[in-house]
Amino acid sequence: MTDALKIALLGHGVVGSQVVRLLDEQADDLAARIGAPLELAGVAVRRPARHADVPAHLLTTDAAELVARDDVDIVVELVGGIEPVRGLLLSALESGKSVVSANKALLADDGATLHDAAARARVDLYYEAAVAGAIPLLRPLRESLAGDRINRVMGIVNGTTNLILSRMDATGAGFDEALAEATALGYAEADPSADVDGYDAAAKAAILAGLAFHTRVGMSDVFREGIGDVTAADMASARAMGCTVKLLAICERRVDDNGVERVAVRAHPAMIPRSHPLASVGDAFNAVFVEAEAAGSLMFYGRGAGGAPTASAVLGDLVAVARNRVSGSRGAGESAYAQLPIQGMGEVTTRYHVALDVNDEPGVLAGAAQAFAEQGVSIQTVRQEGRGDAATLVLVTHGASDASLDVTVQKLAQMPFVRRAASVMRVEGMGGD
Amino acid sequence: MTDALKIALLGHGVVGSQVVRLLDEQADDLAARIGAPLELAGVAVRRPARHADVPAHLLTTDAAELVARDDVDIVVELVGGIEPVRGLLLSALESGKSVVSANKALLADDGATLHDAAARARVDLYYEAAVAGAIPLLRPLRESLAGDRINRVMGIVNGTTNLILSRMDATGAGFDEALAEATALGYAEADPSADVDGYDAAAKAAILAGLAFHTRVGMSDVFREGIGDVTAADMASARAMGCTVKLLAICERRVDDNGVERVAVRAHPAMIPRSHPLASVGDAFNAVFVEAEAAGSLMFYGRGAGGAPTASAVLGDLVAVARNRVSGSRGAGESAYAQLPIQGMGEVTTRYHVALDVNDEPGVLAGAAQAFAEQGVSIQTVRQEGRGDAATLVLVTHGASDASLDVTVQKLAQMPFVRRAASVMRVEGMGGD
Asked: Which of B6, B97, B104, B204 is catalytic?
């Protein structure tokens, strides 16, 4: 056994307190697995009085001083947000400390700067807990599939929105009602916009795409759409065609007409068939599909959030980073050699579900079909619902580009028989095109 | 870029030829990810004439000489079986070569010797492809969950038997018929006993248990039962209670009445509820559940066999091992510090489904219930099927030890009203006890 490795913990909330508990309860096992004991050097918090369960001599409000201490080997960051964390982690890495972080926003916003600092200092920067909580996902992408060619990653990576959509599906509730329920259950934050508006899922998509495609992907590269506009009517419409609605993070490698490889990364609500394995992922669970050339389809499923599950991922990284320090080595660093260009959302092709409130008169279908045909958008199914004032035309397209679908919908809105384009939603997981 | 890393490939069958193809097709990507190109030093085969697609100068029948070559850095073993592979891999490790293997039989039979040799030479021994083909499973257990406490691993890890049982379930076919079908489809070997008799699943269970519990587990520690005795009647009986039959590998950490932790490892057919996610894993797919204290339940799903999927896992290991050689380090080695004792199957508790052919007369249920009660086995449900000569009593127990169930069944067989103990099968995945 070598000397104890000292850990600076930044943040002591739901996840941090579980990390402290597990460090204590599993101390002997962790030491045996690492070859050295782990020891808390300090815990940086904003209000020490609220953390009476941590020995007082470990608590500090000065995170910068804690990170700068010479005896600290590893910094575990569970604070979240961009500033001041970015500066703290940069100075930790620059002074030769390894970093374990669960901060998806920072990694998606400026992972490149952190990775560069880690590479220069020859230390580790691990962040398994930043995506899909307890589910081992980043390590499999970075290491297990390092000899394969990943074509697609698609998954449910935000538990709060999945809970809301699951409730809307199960009870027929509208978005506001389901959000209120999630808030009451403690699943939604007081300000739910990071989840509901898709920022959280988009940040995770950026991280996943970076690993899958060996390309730096930032938040500005990700197309994002939240679930705030998903209505009870959309959910009913999805049900009518054997689907449900999920907020999906989707990372794809696509070859364009000129044979150029590009990467498309997006996070938005989409209808998926009920028979698709992602459709039955309920409540606060996460699940991610990975399609690789040789491996085929893989699925990873588990708890995407919560104190203990997230702490499990943090501790897995902590053991890996600590083992590396004991053996004087470094794990796999950033791999961004490919630097594939990003495909704009306008060029991304998916299927669409389009519902139009129409006049109940002859020629409506012919007129609508003509509008789609003019933009080269091919229709897979058409269904007319209701009669008279309640007549609705529901169309599902084959794969079409976002841009041509946009133009089609604009043209449709101007047609005399269309009263309103009631809903436009992407459809995923149907296979084929 | 450093000099090329040279690879000795042992075996060039279904998996080996895919490894050669991917090494060639992905050469640039692999070099970029590793920081050095990979180069085939040679391919050892038994009959060179059958491998015309490999450049002749690379082919050799002398595996020992290939492994001994000074310029070889990494040995990839895809031959299978215990001898002569054990000796080849030992001498590779002893001479400082890293080893990537897909050989579950050897790892389960004598992994300890190989791990010791790898540790002494400070080189890597990786074998992700040995269990569940393309599914990243061993690395998550060894690394991602290294900070957690795994309590249970349960999964479908043999595609051939899963195909046979899926066919029996779907068509009502008997075992022999379904086996013949699997053989015709090329899914079952000419000698199917390694799969059908559960040896393959047992070897994988041993490997999984070793990683999950930081304990050396060998083949002799694993309780094993094949699927050859599963009848169409068993399958119908499973269906009648909302279940199907799967061959499961199960690794558990259990605390006995004296508070002593022990490990129970088994591979046998079992009924599981159709609502259980493993029930819908069809054909040649694999899926594994992992239950950890902090992480909760995780599931991993994908292709468990086949040339390309298995080659994906081999190449993932190859990249990891090669990266380590480039950086002069070594990945996580064997972790067997816990050395928990193995629990004998007699003490392992599970639920049981017991079907008895009985005389259709009063007092049968009372008599049978008495036999269970005498052994302390508690009954959850009882169902009587048929009348007259076709009367069958079907009982499902609460959790009971294998030993007390055995005695119960022996006693029942001697009772005057029992014509035959038609079937006894374990029931898993029902939750509770």
From this structure: B204
